[in-house]
Structures are given as C-alpha cells and as structure tokens.
C-alpha cells in the first residue's frame, strides 16, 4: 500500500510540478491530523493557505480509503468514494460533486512539486465531519459511514398440509415442504396439540387413514386454526409422552409411555346450587335428596321454565390453559357465575352449575379434577333443556386471537349461531365463527349443547381484558341475551 501511495505521489509530483502556482503558504509541522480517531502523520508537513489547512493528496487517499486520480491535461484531481465523485481543479475555488458545482474557501494548490488539497472542503464534500481542536492544534475528521439498509424480513415459505394419517402409535402429518411445528398438551381430556406453522390445508376431507387402529387414541382432528397455522389435535383415552419429529416434508407425533385413564373420583359434595336472596326460581342440583321433576318436552318458548346447565370449563387440579398471569379455570368460573346469577334472577330459567368456587376449592385441595363424564351426566340426569360450557382458548403464538363457538349435532347449530352472534359483539375480539367439533361435553349430552371459547389466554391483550370483572359480566350479559332470543324463537 505504501509503495502504491508513494508511486501515486511521484506520479502527481511529476505532472503537477509542471503547473506549480505561486501561493502564499506556510508549512506548519505542529498541526496534527486525526482521521476516524487515528493519528495520521504525513511525510511532509501540512500547509496553511489563507488560514486553511491543506494536506498532501496521498494523505487524503490513505486516511479516507478513497480513490484519487490525476488528469494532467486539465490539471484536475478526481476523488471517488463509492457513488460520490468530486472533481477539483488546481487554482480553482469551484469543485464539482457528481456534476454539481460547489464553492470552496480555498483552491487546491501545488507547493514544492506536491499537490495539496483543502482538507476541510474535501472532507465535508465527502459527507465527513471536520473539526479543529485548538488546544492540541489538531484537525479532526470523522468519516460518516452509512449503515447498510435493514434487511427485509424474509417471508416464510407457506407449505401445504397434504394429508394426515395414523399408524398405530404414530400420527404423520405430510407437508409440501419443510416448516416448523410447535406442540403442547391440554387436559380434560388429555390432548396433544400440534400447530404447523406457515401452513394451509390442501385437503378438504376430514377422514384420517388408520384412525381407530389404536384404542389409546380416541380421536384425531385438524383444522385451519389461523390463516397460516394448521392445528392437529390428538385426543387420548388416557395420557402419554410423545416425541415430535420434524423432517423435510413430514411431521410425526410418536406416542410412548401410554397410560390408561385414571378412575374417576366422585366429588365430596353434590354439584352446587345457585341461589338468589329474593325468592328465586329453584335451582336444581342432582343427587341433593330431592325428587327431580320430569322436564316436559315441547317448544322452549312455551315452557314455564327452561332448565339449563352452565359448565365452567376445567376446575380442581385441572387448570386448563394458562398464560399472561391467568388460569383458564378461574376465568371460566367467573363468567359462569355471572351468567348463573343472571339466569337465577329470571323466572323463566332453572339453572344448574357443574362447578362453583366452593366445589373448585374442595377439588383442588384433594388434588383431583372434575371428570368430563360427570358434567355430561349432570346435564343428562337432570333432563336439561340446554347446555353451555364456557372455555378460554390458547395458542402457541401470542398473536392468536378471537372468539369462537363449537357445536356437535345439527340440532345445536342454530343455538350456537344465536349465542355466538351476541358473544362476539360483547368481547369485541375477532370473529372466528362457529365450528363443529367432537368435544365430549357437547357430543354426549342429549340436549342442544355448545362450547364457547371466549378469547385467547395466550394473547396478552385479550388475557388482560378477560381478567376484568366488567368484561366477565359483559360476556355473561351477552350469553343471557342470546339464550332469551334462542328460547323465544324455538
């Protein structure tokens, strides 16, 4: 590098020496030169011309890491730095920057057969910061570096889920390319949930080849859970450990250590009764020693009282989904109690709750949960007219959001539509529509039954709102309004 610079200096001396111009200049060896924090010592002293500091051309080239060339015919020095081109003519106070004229305080000169350039002017034209420190008699230049433009985030490739099949203890998810899958488990019943990221369904069939070959696997279902997430749910008869194996075009859920379901433990007390202080209509709890009156069939709108079971999802040792400092079992219980209070104050309704705070406390202390079959039996044994189960949703992504309502049989579809219409208005969350599903509490109940997913506990904004008393009451009011509308029209 030094030899190259010296060669350039000799080259410039040879050609520029023929055009030396008489100027009033004085060498000042006391002036120090700092470029980008480093001290640079030129081979010849810096020059002062009319109070301006001039530096040898090769020092400019070396210190700023730029290209410098000489046009002897036109007595012109050209400085190139990236996309910027500066042309300076000996003896001229006019420079050209990318073809645009710029005025200089002092012109480039030739002194003792060496070419000197106005340091401040060149630095500023290159976009550098130039300063003078009088105490140390230093000329300071810091060249601005333009950071590279931020890289645009790569749009992940969207793959297609082409098929899902079961082979004994393995669930295989075929994809059109490699992608990421996230998994977690849920209880009541035990489920393994796999969210295939950046994926869309390429199959319209809900049939899963091989399903039913292993009695430990009760059900496998899938859906387009989010616009870019395909959710696969493996429901087990008991519980199991599993490995999630991800390949180039296949994701496998390999079950191991499958456990049989634990025998259900009957609760210490009977299901709770919601009571009101001022002569409320009776609230029936199964097995409380009273004789349950038959519930006449016929249109709901013509019945003197409509018997409804309100199920607060999860409970006891079963927390349900958790996230953002909230537990699903607490949120569902809060909403359900508000709803039961609304219904208990209306003489049109008899309300039965599957769980209240006292029962939940007892279940938790005993380390047991309320089995789904118990909830189904409460509704069926009491000849309920309607059943509603309150739940809170969860996702592997914090961006999952919205309200949805599930039904199983066609007789429950109108019920689901009516309640969902009121519910989604009350939550203000995105509308995830009504969906058909095989959840146990709505599959085996004999009356119209629905399961509502109010919002996502995994979404910080929705979780925060769902924890407020005002929100829970608003949801309860909306469901109550939906129930009255459905009964009036049926």
UniProtKB/TrEMBL annotation:
| Entry keywords, A to Z | Hydrolase, Signal
UniProt-listed Gene3D superfamilies: 2.60.40.3500, Copper amine oxidase-like, N-terminal domain, Zn-dependent exopeptidases
Do you know which InterPro entries this protein is assigned to? AMIN_dom, Cu_amine_oxidase-like_N, Mao_N_sf, MurNAc-LAA_cat, N-acetylmuramoyl_amidase_3
The answer to whether the entry has keyword Hydrolase is: yes
Pfam (any one): Cu_amine_oxidN1
Q: A single GO BP annotation from the record?
A: peptidoglycan catabolic process
Q: Which GO terms describe its molecular function?
A: N-acetylmuramoyl-L-alanine amidase activity
* A GO CC annotation given for this chain: outer membrane-bounded periplasmic space
Please state the span of the N-terminal signal peptide per the UniProt entry.
1-25
Residues of the MurNAc-LAA domain: 376-484
PANTHER family the UniProt entry points to:
N-ACETYLMURAMOYL-L-ALANINE AMIDASE, N-ACETYLMURAMOYL-L-ALANINE AMIDASE AMIC
Q: Please report the name of this protein according to its UniProt entry.
A: N-acetylmuramoyl-L-alanine amidase
């Amino acid at each position: 590098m030094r030899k190259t610079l010296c060669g350039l200096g000799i080259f410039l001396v040879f050609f520029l020496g023929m055009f030396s111009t008489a100027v009033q200049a004085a060498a000042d060896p006391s002036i120090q030169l700092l470029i980008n924090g480093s001290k640079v010592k030129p081979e010849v002293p810096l020059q002062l011309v009319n109070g301006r500091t001039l530096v040898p051309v090769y020092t400019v080239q070396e210190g700023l890491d730029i290209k410098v060339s000489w046009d002897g015919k036109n007595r012109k020095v050209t400085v190139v730095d990236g996309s910027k081109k500066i042309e300076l003519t000996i003896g001229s106070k006019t420079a050209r920057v990318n073809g645009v004229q710029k005025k200089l305080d002092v012109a480039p000169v030739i002194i003792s057969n060496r070419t000197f350039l106005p340091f401040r002017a060149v630095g500023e034209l290159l976009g550098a910061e130039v300063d003078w420190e009088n105490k140390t008699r230093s000329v300071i230049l810091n060249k601005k570096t333009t950071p590279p433009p931020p890289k645009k985030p790569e749009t992940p490739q969207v793959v297609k889920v082409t098929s899902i099949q079961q082979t004994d203890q393995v669930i295989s998810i075929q994809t059109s390319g490699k992608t990421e899958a996230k998994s977690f488990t849920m209880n009541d019943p035990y489920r393994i949930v796999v969210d295939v990221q950046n994926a869309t369904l390429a199959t319209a069939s809900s049939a899963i080849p091989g399903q039913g070959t292993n009695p430990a696997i009760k059900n496998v279902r899938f859906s387009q859970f989010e616009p870019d997430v395909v959710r696969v749910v493996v429901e087990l008869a008991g519980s199991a450990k599993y490995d999630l194996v991800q390949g180039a075009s296949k994701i496998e859920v390999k079950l191991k250590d499958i456990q049989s379901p634990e025998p259900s433990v009957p609760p210490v007390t009977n299901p709770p009764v919601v009571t009101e202080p001022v002569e409320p209509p009776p609230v029936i709890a199964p097995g409380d020693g009273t004789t349950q009156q038959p519930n006449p069939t016929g249109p709901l709108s013509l019945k003197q009282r409509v018997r409804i079971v309100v199920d607060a999802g999860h409970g006891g040792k079963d927390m349900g989904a958790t996230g953002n400092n909230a537990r699903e079992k607490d949120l569902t219980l809060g909403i359900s109690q508000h709803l039961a209070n609304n219904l208990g104050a209306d003489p049109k309704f008899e309300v039965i709750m599957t769980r209240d705070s006292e029962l939940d406390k007892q279940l938790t202390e005993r380390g047991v949960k309320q089995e789904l079959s118990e909830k189904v039996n409460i509704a069926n044994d009491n000849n309920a007219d309607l059943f509603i189960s309150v739940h809170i949703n969860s996702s592997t992504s914090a961006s999952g959001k919205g309200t949805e309502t599930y039904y199983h049989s066609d007789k429950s579809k109108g019920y689901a539509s009516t309640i969902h219409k009121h519910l989604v208005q009350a939550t203000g969350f995105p509308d995830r529509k009504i969906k058909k599903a095989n959840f146990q509490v709505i599959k085996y109940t004999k009356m119209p039954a629905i399961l509502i997913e109010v919002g996502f506990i995994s979404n910080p904004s929705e979780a925060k709102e769902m924890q407020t008393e005002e929100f829970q009451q608003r949801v309860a009011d909306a469901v109550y309004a939906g129930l009255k509308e459905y009964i009036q029209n049926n």
